[in-house]
Amino acid sequence: MRDSMPRRMIQQQMYARERRGIFRSTEGYDTIAKSSGLDPAFIKKTLHPFCVYDAPAELSVRGEKDASAYPETMHLLHLDNGDVLLGRSVYQAADFTGLRSAFFTHNYIIPESLANNPDCDYERFLQASFEGSYDIAGGMEIAELAELPVQAAAAVKPSHRSLLSLLNIDEKTFKQLLYAVMSAVSGKKKVYIALDVPIAQLPGKAKQLMAVLYASLPYAYRRQLGFITYAKEPQSRKAVHLTFVEQGSLRLGDRSIEKDYTFDIASGRMMNVDLDGTDQPYLDFAWDNLERPERAESFYSFAELMLAGMGPERQIAAASYHELCVMYQIEEGNESLYEAHKTAVLRGLLEYLQPAGSLDSKIRLNDLFLSRFDYEFDRVRQGIVPDVFIVDAFKDYYRIDGKYLESKIVTYFILTLNQANRMNAQETVASIYAAVESNPALSKAFFTKLMADSTLTGSLFISFLEKKLKAAAGAKSVLELVEHWGNVHPKLFGFEPFQTLARNQMTDKLERERYSLPAVSRVLAQLRGLAEKARNGSGLTASYDAEDLYQELELAAYRAMLTELDMDKLTHEQLGQADFLTYKDKLQRWNGQLQDPRQKSAALMLLVIYEWLKLPEPTAAIFGRLSPAEMDRVQLTGRRLLAGQLELADAPRHVLAFLRSSDMESVDYAGLLDYLQRNAPSKEMIYGFFQLSERHPDFMKSRGFVPAYRTAIVGYFEKYDRDAFKKRGNWKQHFDKAGPALTAVYKQAARELSSPLSKFFRRNRKATLITSVAALGIILLVAGLLQSIAGKSDSKLEGGVLPEVTPTVETGITKPDTIVYAEQNEASEGVEATTSLVFSFKDAAACAQFAPSSLKVESAGAEAVEYTDLKVTLTCSTVGEVSPTPTNSADAAVTESQTPSTSKPTETPVNEGSTAPDATTKSESTSTVTPSSQPDQGSDGAISLDDYPSRVEVNLGKQVDLPAKSIIRVGEAAYELIVLDVQAN
């Protein structure tokens, strides 16, 4: 490395093959002399790698002895610290021994302070004078130099074009070469050139070509370009961008240089530099100014100034000089270049003017941009609509220096808008509004000037705002935009077109949401807040016009919702989110401004349904404001909404749904109970409702239940729940807990549901008693006669022998292979009551194969019901095995069609079409079964569960009534549901 002391003098170093050197005491190649300012480590690491010489192959092959035939090699590179390494190596026919060839290298290390004139430094470097040998007898320290020694310039120098022509380099090749050199300096690729000249002339021609290239390169490139005038083979070296090589060394397929720029002038083969079809303004400029060095240098000075503060990468980017050379020529008055490169020029000017202080340091560019603005302004006045990028460019300039040009830029935008609208250039219109909105200061200045003229406000602003509101996501966004623009420009709140636009766009967005109550409620809440801010001045500005507008929008949203309100589609969730129905004062004001009778009716019905379903403890008084037709519609809606959430706690709400609209004092009791039967989750809830009704004034009067209600209860049991009183569980859980009035009704219903014989006995109690006594007497008389006859017969047979009797086979009754009966499963904590169908089998194999996924129940006088959500439990065993059977409850009641799950099964089905055994079947009877009882009826042909040891229990998932002799269909098979008589032991 170089030492840290500042160096103001040029240092020298010489390298050759000698008896000894500075770093070695024996003969060989080494530094043999140096200036005192050079650090030994720097010499070894940096200078020694460039102290080399490879003789040309063509001279080595023929064994050339003449040293003058060998080309010298000159190298120049810029070191990391800014210093310049400039050196030359020459061939020596004999070394100090006179026996072998060698080479000699002389290097200058030029301080950065002496190499900071890129406009002319390259000329001195190319003309530098070097030593060809050195005698170590003169000492190993050589002087530091104040100036670089140079050779006398040639008296006559060929022109650049003539030199290029002499080297067979045409315009295309020159541009390719210049492009390659610029790319190599800014990138990682290298440039290798094989000139079509004799090897001895190569260094001289290379330096002449380097002079042309230097003259065509901007200063930033000159400060970094490194080169070697001769090398035997292409070789990549750090800080060396261009190398001239011996002819024939640029071989096709050489992997080491396949990505580099290669120029084999003799063969005309240039690689990786195809510029066809690309626009390269700077290359054209350089070619045009080969013979005009003053103009070229003027441009380089211009570019140097314009790139100040742009960073080193931008200073060696070819694109910068493409832009700047165009700007330079436009500044000279070449308008055609502006038209051809308008986008690049405007964008480039803005980039150069953006760094801080650029407006002062780059006055020429700023003036150039302002001249382009004037040019475009005149074109708009002539009726020409500008391109979008021009609008964006002037918008961006406003950020840089807009305060001095604000009025003119705003006027330009307004003129452009008018012209674009006239020509229907909507893309330009959109770009102007986008440009204006992107800068708050520009936006305020633009719209302030726009709204100062009512004509412009109506023609330009309203159409602009309409597009923004249409593009808004919903009503909320519409109102946010209305608030924003109104706060920025308060006059808009009182501008009728603005009010109309806000109202129409808000209702359009609500229409997309079908005027749903939640959507309208959110809008009304938002408007309420906006009106509050406008009234209190909590926004950007307080305005009575703003409050009036927001209140008008509230009424518009409310009216639109009422017009489109569909009571049949109303849901609980929607009502729950309709917070505006709690705004009593606002509702009163809005309803007072309604003119349409349909809207008035809808408002009234909506408020009543809300108070009915959402407020606590509603009464019939809420219906007092409704007409009979409105009340009917509200009640229908309420029934639909309440049907899905029947709970005893809400019983008073359900009662209101069945008030008669004629007097609102009587209830449609039959309709109410029918409604409960259809929608209640279980019968237990209906029984609970009966108990609750004993304390409700609409059902209970001073003398007991309303007669119509008594009739309705009895009718419910007759129509829907005929077996209710046969179940002991119902008595324990519900009927025994009823009050006196309800108990009387239950007894009446039970009597109505009893058998005809029971009814006869109840109606003729006295005749029944007399008949029973007479029948008992007759039975006792007959019994006495039979006993006396039997005694006489016994005396006659005493001592005799009875003849042997041969037993005969009793005619049997054919029993089905499968029976079906029902079991009722009582509810428990967290589990609802359900009904199961039990399929009992004689054959265990048939039981094991029976696993239905669905079944259908057909009952007389009712539609068939299909059950698919089944839970199947198999218990399959042969006769003699112990088969699990339902456990009986000590107080369970066995009924005609259903029994609690804890009692013995009482129904036995048979296959459809067969005769069900009915020897012991009893209709409408109740039997009490003890835990140890069994239905043992096999002695007389009745069905015994012992004959059916295998069973499949199919849980239907809910509790249902299954009348006797219902048909159970499973696939193609059909079974008849029957009732088993269960006798207590």
Describe the structure.
The chain is 45% helix and 11% strand. With 985 residues, the protein is α+β, with helices and mostly antiparallel strands. The strands form five sheets. It has an eleven-stranded mixed beta sheet with strand order 6-2-1-5-4-3-8-9-7-10-11, with helices on one face. A four-stranded antiparallel beta sheet has the order 14-15-21-18. Strands 17-16-22-23 form a four-stranded antiparallel beta sheet, with no helix packed on it. The longest helix is centred in the last third of the chain and has 33 residues. The chain is elongated. The N and C termini lie far apart (120 Å). The N terminus is likely disordered.
Give Rg in angstroms: 57 Å
Q: How confident is the prediction overall: mean pLDDT?
A: 85
The total count of helices amounts to: 37
- Percent range of helical residues: 40-55%
Shape: elongated
The end-to-end span amounts to: 120 Å
Taking pLDDT < 50 over at least 5 consecutive residues as the criterion, the unreliable ranges are 1-5, 795-812, 879-940
Strand segment count? 23
Which percent range describes the beta-strand content? Answer: 5-15%
Largest sheet: 11 strands, mixed
By oligomeric state, this entry counts as single chain
Question: From the helix content, strand content and strand pairing, which structural class follows?
Answer: alpha+beta
Spatial order of the strands forming the largest sheet = 6-2-1-5-4-3-8-9-7-10-11
